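Service request form, structural biology core

Requester: graduate student, group of Dr. S.
Request type: structure prediction, single chain
Budget code: on file
Notes: please return the result as structure tokens.

Sequence provided:
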Amino acid sequence: MALPNVTDLDLNEARVLLRVDFNVPVDAAGAITDDNRIRAALPTIRYLQERRCKIVICSHMGRPKDAPDPRFSLEPAAARLAELLDGEVVLAHDTVGEHVEQLALDLPPGGVMVVENLRFHPGEKSNSPEFAAALARLGTVFVNDAFGAMHRADASIAGVPALMDRACVGLLVKAEVEALSKVMEQPSRPLVAILGGAKVSDKIGVIESLLRRCDALLIGGAMAYTFLKAKGQPVGSSRVEEDRVLLARRIAERCAERGIRLLLPVDHVVAQDLKADAENRIVETIEDGWMGLDIGPATSEAWAAEIQGAGTLFWNGPAGVFEMEAFSSGTRAVAQAVASCPGYTVVGGGDSAAAIAAFGLADKVDHVSTGGGASLEFVQGVDLPGIKAIREKGQASSRSGGPR
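Core staff response, request fulfilled:
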């Protein structure tokens, strides 16, 4: 069964409980430093407003200890949403309860309310049936547009849908599922995958999934040095997962057996310390006492050529410590190559999404995922709890002939 989305349902004047991901970064003064996650929810919110829905928005933020904490209040997010919508947004000072329910009922058609941080209640992370039921009383229709949280079996993700009259995903989740499915199920060839980041162990499931699908695999970041050590190359003081060296060797062998082009760094930007002002140099062979912190220009050139030939491209993880200018050139080169790739391009959230945004190239790719962990689990083939809950609710409604 296709995943039901907001365009499939008659939502005119419905009271909608909308789960979003407003887990935005804030500075010490509580000011939002990046509002992209709020902006990502705007298409669904506006779609619901056009249908005169009463919109009750819920989200988590940060990691409070199952109790109210002003550092993690959604008040800044609600204020920013009001600015973006150029209209009033009510902020409820609790998440559930009779007072919050009455505020939801009193909303005018097209009105918007944000309830307080879901994680102020212990029932959210434990998927408490009582907390899920309290949330469900805030609306009659549930819309999940929080792709970044779809891999968490929390009450607001996995518990609520079954308790609502109807449930579906929003426009953001719809776009995420379509983009990632296009990569994994029907890619235009060749499919090129770029993986970076710190640990091979963090990406084992993703690599296994991609080995069944991709034509070329480019591995950078610190995880590349585990692969290079597996090939017997000197890696100096570079970060290596010693307990994953044998696994890396087997992955390389499987690539060779399947005709998958495995591209590892052939040159490196190295330093003796992981410091922004550390002396650095470009080398082909890493000597003792030096560590690889970025791919070098020859690698960048070879990777750009591979990327340009991609029919479909998936990128997750930076090529180096891009947060430091001295070690950002490789990731910048990858971002530029991805942005100019004529094929279908998907950036899989997390640090790679942050990198392509930092380089001002996010609008040059076909899709930038809003969910790092969720997109990786989706690529692995995991049935995400949030998607499963919506699908099962849709199947139950279809069998019962329930309302649309």
